Please model this.
Amino acid sequence: MKILVLNGPNLRLLGQREPGIYGEGTLADAEALAVTAGKQLGAHVDCFQSDIEGELVKKIGEARGVYDGIVINPAAYTHTSIALRDAIAAVEIPTVELHISNTHKREAFRHVSYTAPVCMAQLQGFGIQGYSLAVAGLIAHLQCTKK
Ligand code: DQA
Model:
């Protein structure tokens, strides 16, 4: 089983960026949590971060036939990107939308997600621990939907 973990804009600054909201853990810590959770459950996890919308769209498009599931923290693109939403819908790969913070406790513009309606699940508010939880939840889902 292969899982792709995608992170969007500004998430490479985790650890330095607004630690009161996102915590002290770095992107490397978050990715390590995802990889370890995958390993423990028998899945291979690849990680990719980009600040560029088109690069994320391209990665999703290339995931078809390669990955069984995707975990994506689209960051600010969550609230703006029809292109990411269309990419997720196009590849028909079970996808979990992940947020470190609970976006519903924050500004009103963060309450809208363009991507959530085409994802199988959404997980938010657990800090970077969400990366292990999302991978574990996705693997459990894939195992019970496997023919
Ligand atoms: C975020 C929440 C988004 O609203 C924000 O733009 C981010 C991070 C989160 O993980 O909590 O960059 O996706």
